[in-house]
Amino acid sequence: MRLQLKEGIKGQQEIMVEVKDTAANVGSGTVEVFATPSMIALMENTAQASIAECLAKGEATVGIEINIKHIKATPVGVKVKCFSELTEVKGKKLLFKVEAFDEKGKIGEGKHIRYIIDTEKFMENVK
């Protein structure tokens, strides 16, 4: 049975930026700083993990929209913390506020939308 999915659910994750997370490595740039795609992946993962226990067996969420500002560069070897908050539930549509910080302050912020799916039905439609 699904736990109550309600506004205000918060998530938090922390990573240490590694070479694999850099713009030069993921192909989004040529410098070795925390890549925007890596930051976005961390934000999406933080949001989905925050509500995972609220889903019924066989359900998952998929990201359908993201609007992010990458404010500041973060070098390899620096810790990044990401926070999410479920701000609105519209049926199966979930809206999140997401933020990321390094040791010197905020590095990214924005909004993220996820949608609850039945995993089996979803995958049938992908084939």
From TrEMBL:
Protein's recorded name: Thioesterase superfamily
Active site as annotated: T36, E44, H70
Gene3D superfamilies reported for this sequence: Hotdog Thioesterase (3.10.129.10)
Species this chain originates from: Clostridium grantii DSM 8605
Domain Fluoroacetyl-CoA-specific thioesterase-like per the UniProt entry, residue ranges: 17-120
Record: residues binding CoA: G63
A Pfam short name: FlK
UniProt cross-references to InterPro entries, sorted A to Z: FlK (IPR025540), FlK-like_dom (IPR054485), HotDog_dom_sf (IPR029069)
Lineage of producing organism: Bacteria, Bacillati, Bacillota, Clostridia, Eubacteriales
SUPFAM superfamilies in the cross-refs: Thioesterase/thiol ester dehydrase-isomerase
Residues the entry annotates as binding substrate: G63, R114
